[in-house]
Amino acid sequence: MKFQLKNIVAVLIMALALISCSDNDDSATVNELDGLTKFQEMTNTTHTIELYSHTGVLVQGYNEVKLRIKDNVTNQYIKNATVSWMPVMHMAMMNHSCPNSEVEKITTEGTLYEGYIMFQMAQNDTEYWDLKIDYSIDGVDYTTTSVIDVPASAKRTVNTFTGTDGVKYLVAYAEPHHPSVALNDMVVGVWKMQDMMTFPVVDGYTLKIDPRMPSMGNHSSPNNVHATQTSTGELYNGKLSLTMTGYWKINLQLAKPDGTIVKGEEITDTVTASSIFFEIEF
Amino acid sequence: MKKLVVFFLSLSFGFTFSQETDSLKIKELKEVIVVGTKSQLHEKQSKTLASVDEFLQKSTKVDLIKRGAYAWEPIINGMTTERTVITIDGMRIFGACTDKMDPVTSYVEVSNLSEATISSGQQGTCHGNTIGGAINLKRSQGKFADKGWDFALNSGFETNNKQKIIGSSINFADSLFYIDTDVMFRDAENYKAGNNQEISFSQFRKLNLSTISGFRFSNNKIIEASIIYDKATDVGYPALPMDVSLAEALITSLKFDYKPISNRIDNWETKLYYNTITHTMDDTKRPNVPIHMDMPGWSDTYGIYSKVNGRLNKHDYMVNLNGFYNRSVAEMTMYPSDPNENLMFMYTWPDVQTIYSGIYLEDNWLINCHSNLKFTISLGMHSNNVASDFGMQSLQIFYPELEASKSRFLKSISTNYSYDKNGLQFGGGFGYGERAPSVSEGYGFYLFNSFDNFDYIGNPNLKNEQSLEANVFFGFKNSKWQAKITTAYFHINNYIIGIPDLSVAPMTIGANGIKIYTALDHATIWSNDLIFNYFIHDNWTWKGQFLYNIGRDNKNEGLPFMSPFNYLTSITFNQLKWDAEIILKGNTAQTEYNTFYGEDRTPDYAVINCNLGYKFNFEKTKIKLNTGVENVFDSNYTTYTDWKNLPRMGRNIFINLMFQF
Q1: Are A133 and A167 in a shared domain?
Q2: Set of chain B residues whose Cβ sits within 8 Å of the Cβ of A246
Q3: Starting at the edge strand that comes first in sequence, how are the strands of the sheet with A95-96 ordered?
Q4: B18 part of a folded domain
């Protein structure tokens, strides 16, 4: 009978615990490198540029990249630089760039600069990416270039295609980094190729999403919200509903502001997948 | 032949009209069914080792939804588990299966029980909030008497599904102490419906162990401990897409009983209890499943009640303070055919913790020697808390504003009058009661219901279901006749039922769609029954019972699981050593069905059962032998309670043998 009494005591304790959940939120000084891992250093005679990402690697697709610039002499991090970058793919017959953002300082006090780069293709044995970083400090310009490692992603996170309007589009999955069984905040990017080196954000479109589980009768999920832009030049935001863990195929349709679909198919009983899609597995 | 199915079987139907004890005693409007292997010698059981479900089926108020040969779900006045309260000696227990494959009654055995008390509607609120009514299963317990040791051996066999039953009990009692221990084991293969149609996946195996022990440490103080352990394995559910590999329960309690020397308080009983259930659904034995899945569920309940009974002048009163904490968790893991793919996982019950505390008051006023008036009132605080963040986020897909905790205040009040003089009885009453949504109704996540082939989603925003109820009975008896007609009418506001949501696609492969638990503005249920006994001769009795329920939703369409006109009639022969019975039972075609809730028309049926019993005493040894034939004409039939028209068992010959020494 001790057993039962013990359990009753356990109930009481649980009840108490329910009432008295307390949080200690004494926030220590914020470490700006929290959650970031350095994946590369680029060095010239004057400075060393440290490159960071959440995963500690770059990969084909959308990459949030953070960097900081260290003075090789003083070992101090530069807080007042103006930075820009240019990723370039070196192919056998040609070179081209990829969609990428401006590089901006995160906080005035901090040392980190950030932006994104969306590698639409991975490196291979003969073709590689390099990253050129131009920066100026107190009116003096500097530059450095290094080869970077961009392996293929395991799941499809980028679609490059020519729309029905003849424009070459690129769409990429950015977030959630860690999908969960929930209504996830989704971030995607939509760009077009203006020329080999220029990939501006496409404004005002809608990226329609239809997540499906092909391994389980291709069922969908409820209450998804198609990705749209809140302001021009920005990435697109939507809601991605995932009702269980596992492999999800997010079927896509890219629609112009007037509703015309430039690429992608609606999922029906006979059409089980769209020609453009993202994949996630968790 | 097809329509008139017939059957011989064996349930000896011990209807108790109102209890016939001394006339100064309060008349309780409860039906008591004697269950169990330990019934006294004067009680005739035509099938002593029948399942608890078969015993419950004797009540006109109770029917059972059958998904297979095992673990039938009791319904009271046509209302299923959510609207009823089933307790074991006042203890709350909650099944751990999201598909209701493990009603509370499936975790006990006839060897654990002595009787089942069935209360209709608000008369059943003593142990919890109910709409349809309550069943309290009374634990068998020893008595403080200098009886010493006694032993019993039970064994049975049923031909249809080769069910083997074996059990034994060892009991000891003296004036200060008693201990009863029981074991019972059942093992059954697939049963065969009429015309030799084998029903695959209808096998089961069940082991039940129990101990109850009491100690009297003073004249008026008793402490009693009880443990029931029940384990069912390899249970098939032919009407469902999954079976059960394990259903295991541990049900424990510790009771203090105090009889103060007072003329105001008769008895003060306090009980602490704990029960834990593990239920594992499994489809690994099923051929051609679209996707394999595991669906385990757990339910743990801790509770306490303290109940005082007494008498003040002409008032019999009862006060019951009670509370429980329950934690229900269920998961689903699906296995993709590509083994390199991640498993698909979700919480189908997101660790829902329920805390209830309430008070129940009852006053039974003996107006005079032939009439009394009963009042009951029950007030309780009920709160749910979703403890799993994972599960919480899952539900927020549907309800972005969902908060983890929700509290409700539940009220119930009822009054009943009854009159009994010169063989004439009548009475009636009114009640109002509320209930909180069940865990599935509030928080279920993609629960597949094979009855209507929909995936169900819970709705945490449901209001309390509220029932307004009126009931009337009328009966008479003389030396030859006993008859009683009862009718109960329920008007239920915020009636909770699944309603299709076309905007959401189902998850289960092949499902028709999604239903969200929704409160209909109202629904009504009208339940009617008539029972009679005619004493033909000293040893011969003719019995009959008739039942008809009507349920209507707010559009005046039918509600599911309402009994069509249902009849049972039997002739019993009863003598000191011998008893025999022949029973005809059936129902007319179910015309009041509603396809919207997954029902279809069930044709009429009739079956005949017959049974024979013999008792033999030799010095201290008692032998009871029961045998009978159920469904004598081997009809292939199904009833309105059979899940997806699962055919019932065909001809079955049983033999039950008990030794007591």
Answers
A1: no
A2: 334, 336, 341-345
A3: A95-96, A82-90, A128-137, A140-148
A4: no
Contact assignment for A223 to B398 by CB distance below 8 Å: yes
On whether both A117 and A201 belong to a single domain, the answer is: no
Q: Residue A6 has what pLDDT?
A: 56
Predicted confidence band at A21 (pLDDT cuts at 50, 70, 90)? very low
Q: With contacts defined as CB-CB under 8 Å, which chain B residues touch A225? A: none
Query: What's the confidence (pLDDT) of residue B44?
Result: 60
**Which positions ≥6 away from B368 have C-beta within 8 Å?**
none
CA distance B128 to chain A (A): 19
Whether residues B505 and A219 touch (CB distance < 8 A) is answered with yes
Q: Which residue of A has its CA nearest to B227?
A: A1
Longest dimension (CA), chain A: 82
Q: Cβ contact (<8 Å) for B396 and A182?
A: yes
Which residue among A14, A216, A222 sits closest to B504, beta carbon to beta carbon?
A: A222
Question: Is A32 domain-assigned?
Answer: no
| Interface contact A7-B336, CB threshold 8 A | no
Contact B533/B542 with Cβ under 8 angstroms? yes
- Mean pLDDT, chain A, rounded, equals 90
pLDDT tens-digit profile of A33-66?
888 999 999 999 999 999 999 999 999 999 999 9
Q: Report yes or no on B8 lying in a domain.
A: no
| Closest in A3, A182, A219 to B507, CB measured | A219
Provide the token pair at B296.
């385990």
Q: What is the pLDDT of residue B3?
A: 35
Q: Which pLDDT belongs to residue A9? A: 53
Q: Which residue of A has its CA nearest to B386?
A: A18
- Chain A, 1-30: which have a CB under 8 Å from a chain B CB? 1, 3-5, 7-8, 10-11, 14-15, 18
Q: Which amino acid is at B363?
A: D
Is B640 in contact with B19 (CB distance < 8 Å)? Answer: no
Write out residues 62-121 of A within 8 Å (CB-CB) of B. none
Answer with the one of A117, A148, A179 that is the final residue of a domain.
Answer: A148
- Which of the pair, A27 or B10, is modelled with greater confidence? A27
Q: Taking a contact as any Cβ pair under 8 Å apart, which residues of chain A between 164 and 193 contact chain B?
A: 180-183
ipTM of predicted assembly, 2 dp: 0.87
In this prediction, residue B9 carries a pLDDT of 26
- Asked whether residue B13 is assigned to any structural domain, the reply reads no
Within a domain: residue A15?
no
Whether residue B655 contacts residue B252, with contact meaning beta carbons closer than 8 Å, is answered with: no
Domain boundary among A98, A123, A148: A148
Q: What is the predicted pLDDT for the residue at B6?
A: 29
**A142 and A105 in a common domain:** yes
The domain total for chain B is: 1
Number of structural domains, chain A? 2
Query: Can you say whether the dihedral through the CA atoms of B439, B440, B446, B448 is positive or negative?
Result: positive
Q: State whether A179 and A259 are in the same domain.
A: yes
Q: What CATH number does residue A178 fall under?
A: 2.60.40
Flag whether A6 is in a domain. Answer: no
- In this structure, are A163 and A275 located in the same domain? yes
Is residue B23 included in any domain, yes or no?
no
Is the separation of the CB atoms in B136 and B90 below 8 Å?
yes
CATH number at residue B486: 2.40.170.20
Domain of A261, in residue numbers = 158-281
Question: What is the extent of the structural domain holding B287?
Answer: 31-660
pLDDT at B30: 74
Low-confidence ranges of chain B (pLDDT < 50): 1-24, 41-42
Strand, helix or coil for residue B104: helix
Q: What is the 3-state secondary structure (H, E, C) of A66-91?
A: EEEEEECCCCCECCCCEEEEEEEEEC
